[in-house]
Amino acid sequence: MTNTILVTGGTGKTGSRVVEQLKAKGVSPHVGTRSPKGENDARFDWKDPSTFDAAFEGVRAVYLVAPTDTVDSLGAMQSGLEAALAAGVQRFVLLSGSSLEEGGPMMGAVHAWLRSNAPEWSVLRPAWFMQNFSELHHRNPIRDEAAIYTATDDGRIGFIDAGDIAACAAALLVAGTVENTDYILTGPEAISYDVVAETLTYQLGRQISHDRLTVDELAERHQSLGLPEEYARALAAMDGAIAAGAEDRVTDNVQKLTGKVPASIVEFVQQNIEAWK
Ligand SMILES: NC(=O)c1ccc[n+]([C@@H]2O[C@H](COP(=O)([O-])OP(=O)(O)OC[C@H]3O[C@@H](n4cnc5c(N)ncnc54)[C@H](OP(=O)(O)O)[C@@H]3O)[C@@H](O)[C@H]2O)c1
C-alpha cells in the first residue's frame, strides 16, 4: 500500500519515529499535529471536527494515537474515525497497550470499534516503553536522585524501545495486506526494575537503585509530583499488577513484523546514555 499515510500523534514518541521509518521506506507521510509547522504537517485535532476533512483528504492509511488527556478514547475519537471512513481511509494501525484487552477501557474500546467498522486494521499492544527511562517519568529521578521508584517488587516487564513499535507500525502501514488482528509487542527479554537499575549502574558507572515502594506509597509520590488523586492511584495500581506477574511475557511479534530483533535494555541504555548525564 503506497497511497498517502497520515500519522496522528506524529510529533510524539512513537508517531515521530513512525514518520522517520516511513521516510526511510521512501514514503513521505502527513504528520498530524495540533500545531503544524513543517510543510508535511497536517493540522489535526481529535477534538476539533473542522480539522478532519483536510487531514483525511486522499489518505488511505492512518496511524492512530489516542488523545492523551482522556481515558474515554473512543468517545474522543469516534467522530474522527467516522470522518476517516467517509473520506475513504482503508487501513488503520492503532497504538494501544499490552494491558488493554479488546472491548476493555481506553484504546480497548477503539480496538473493538475497528473490528466492527474498519476494512483493514491492526492494533499494536506494546509493553512498557524503554523511553519511560530516558524521556518520561523515570528520567529525572535516575539523573537527579540515582533512583527508580516503583511498586513492582520483582515483577518483570518486556520493556520495548519506541523505535521497535514504530518499525512495526510502519511495516503494517505499507504492507500489501494485513490480518485484521492485534499484536502484543515486547522487547527481547522480560526483566525487573532491579535489572534495569543494574544495567544503568554498569553503563553509567555510578550506583542507580530500584527503590521499592508499596502501591499506596507510589500513589502518594505521584500525587506529590502533581498527578490528580484518581490518576495517581490508577497508575500505582498498574505497578501492583506488574508485581503480580501481569507483564511477565515475551513475544516474537516485532521480529515477525519487521524481520529484526528488538533492542535490548543494554543497547537502549548505551544509545541514550546522554539522557542521564
Ligand atoms: N509509556 C508507556 O510505557 C506506554 C506503554 C504502552 C502504551 N502506551 C500508550 O502510548 C500512548 C502515547 O503514545 P506516544 O508516547 O507515542 O505519544 P506521546 O509522546 O504521548 O504524544 C502524544 C501525541 O498526541 C498528540 N495529541 C495529543 N492530544 C491530541 C488531540 N486532541 N488531537 C490530536 N493529537 C493529539 C500530540 O501531538 P501535538 O501536541 O503535536 O498535537 C502528541 O504528539 C498512550 O496512549 C499510552 O497509553 C504507553
From TrEMBL:
Residues 1-241 form the NmrA-like domain. Pathway: Alkaloid biosynthesis; ergot alkaloid biosynthesis. Keywords: Alkaloid metabolism, Oxidoreductase. It comes from the Bacteria. The keyword Methyltransferase does not apply. NCBIfam families: ergot_EASG. Belongs to the fgaFS/easG family. This is NAD(P)H azoreductase. The gene is azoB_2.
